[in-house]
Specification:
The protein is of the alpha/beta class. It is built from 11 helices and 9 strands. Helices cover 38% and strands 14% of the residues. The strands form 2 sheets. The chain has a 5-stranded parallel sheet, sandwiched between helices. It binds aspartic acid (ASP).
Length: 309
C-alpha cells in the first residue's frame, strides 16, 4: 500500500498532490465504513492518541475524537484550561509527560504559529496539526477539498472564492495551498483590511466586489469574522460588513447559476451568512462536518501505518 511522503501532518504546504489523492482514496473507504450499521474498524487497536487542545474547539475536537474511536484507537484528551500549562509548564514538558504514558500520535491545536513543527522536532510521536494560530488547519482544508470533489466530481479546474477574514484565517491559507495543488482557480474576497498584503504571491487573485466574485465562482467558502484575533478595528460596523460581504439569498438569487456554499464553522448566522443560505440545499456545510470524520480517519490511519509495531 502507498504511503504518505510526510511523517507528520503539519500543514498542507508540506504535502504533494499524491498525498492528497491517497488521503481522499482512503477517506472514500472510511466514509463507507462510517455509514455502515457498525461504524467501526479494528485497525488502530494498538495505537494511543493524545488530543491536546491549547485553544478552544468544538467541531475539530469532536471530529478527531470520533475518527480515533471509529479506528479503535485508545484516546487521552487534554485541554489547556484544565491543565498545568496554567502553572507555567513548557509545551515540551507537558507533551513529554503525556508521551511517557506511551502515546503514538499527538493531535494538537495551539494558538502559536508553528507549534506543531516545533513539537515534531522535539518529541518522538507523530504530530497532527489541528490548527496553529492564524497559520494552517490542514485537516479542515482536506475535508473542504474532499467535499468539493464529492459534490462536483473533482477539484481540478473548479473556481473557488474564499470570502471574509482572510488575514486571520488558518482555514484560508490551508485551503489556498490545497486548492492550488489540485489545480483549482482561487480568488479571495473581503474587506481590503482583512486581505494580507502579499496574498497574490500565492498565485491567487483578489476580488473586492462580492457580486463579481460570486458570479465568477463555482464554490464560495465563507469564513467567520475572527473577532477574537482582532486587536484593532478592521471594518467600521458589523452592519456594514454584512451589507458588503454577507452572503444572503437575494445575492445568490441574482446570479444566473447555483453555486456551492461552504463554511468551516462556527457560523455567525446573520453576519457572514444568513440562516436561509446556511440551511439551503446548495449549502454543503453539514456534508463538510460528516466528511471531516472520514478524512481525519484517513490521515490518522495513514500516519499510523508508518509506526513500527
Ligand atoms: N473552526 C475554524 C478554525 O478553527 C474556523 C473558525 O474558527 O472560524 O480555524
Amino acid at each position: 500500500m502507498s504511503q504518505l511522503s510526510v511523517e507528520h501532518l503539519l500543514g498542507i504546504k508540506y504535502l504533494n498532490k499524491q498525498d492528497i489523492d491517497l488521503i481522499f482514496q482512503t477517506a472514500d473507504h472510511f466514509k463507507e465504513v462510517i455509514n455502515r450499521p457498525i461504524k467501526k474498524v479494528p485497525s488502530l487497536r494498538d495505537i494511543t492518541i493524545a488530543n491536546l487542545f491549547f485553544e478552544n474547539s468544538t467541531r475539530t475536537k469532536l471530529s478527531f475524537e470520533l475518527a480515533e474511536k471509529r479506528l479503535s484507537a485508545d484516546i487521552i484528551n487534554f485541554s489547556a484550561g484544565q491543565s498545568s500549562v496554567k502553572k507555567g509548564e513548557t509545551l515540551i514538558d507537558t507533551v513529554n509527560n503525556i508521551l511517557s504514558m506511551k502515546v503514538d500520535i499527538v493531535v494538537m491545536r495551539h494558538p502559536n504559529v508553528g507549534a506543531g513543527v516545533f513539537l515534531s522536532q522535539h518529541v518522538d510521536a507523530k504530530i497532527i496539526n489541528a490548527g496553529d494560530g492564524t497559520h494552517e488547519h490542514p485537516t479542515q482544508a482536506l475535508l473542504d477539498s474532499y467535499s468539493i470533489r464529492e459534490k462536483l466530481g473533482s477539484v481540478t479546474g473548479k473556481k473557488v472564492v474564499i470570502i471574509g477574514d482572510i488575514l486571520h484565517s488558518r482555514v484560508a491559507l490551508s485551503n489556498i495551498f490545497a486548492l492550488k495543488m489540485q489545480g483549482a482557480q482561487v480568488k479571495v474576497c473581503g474587506p481590503t483590511t482583512l486581505i494580507p498584503k502579499h496574498v497574490k504571491s500565492l498565485g491567487i487573485e483578489v476580488e473586492i466586489n462580492l457580486k463579481k466574485a460570486l458570479a465568477w465562482c463555482d464554490v464560495a467558502n465563507v469564513l467567520r469574522v475572527q473577532h477574537e484575533r482582532m486587536d484593532i478595528k478592521y471594518f467600521p460596523t458589523t452592519r456594514e460588513y454584512k451589507q458588503l460581504f454577507g452572503i444572503n439569498k437575494e445575492i445568490l438569487d441574482s446570479l444566473d447559476k447555483k453555486i456551492v456554499i461552504m463554511h468551516p464553522g462556527p457560523i455567525n448566522r446573520g453576519v457572514e451568512i444568513t440562516s436561509d443560505v446556511a440551511d439551503a440545499d446548495q449549502s454543503i456545510i453539514l456534508n463538510q462536518v460528516e466528511n471531516g470524520v472520514a478524512v481525519r480517519m484517513a490521515v490518522i490511519y495513514l500516519l499510523a501505518q508508518q509506526i513500527k509495531r
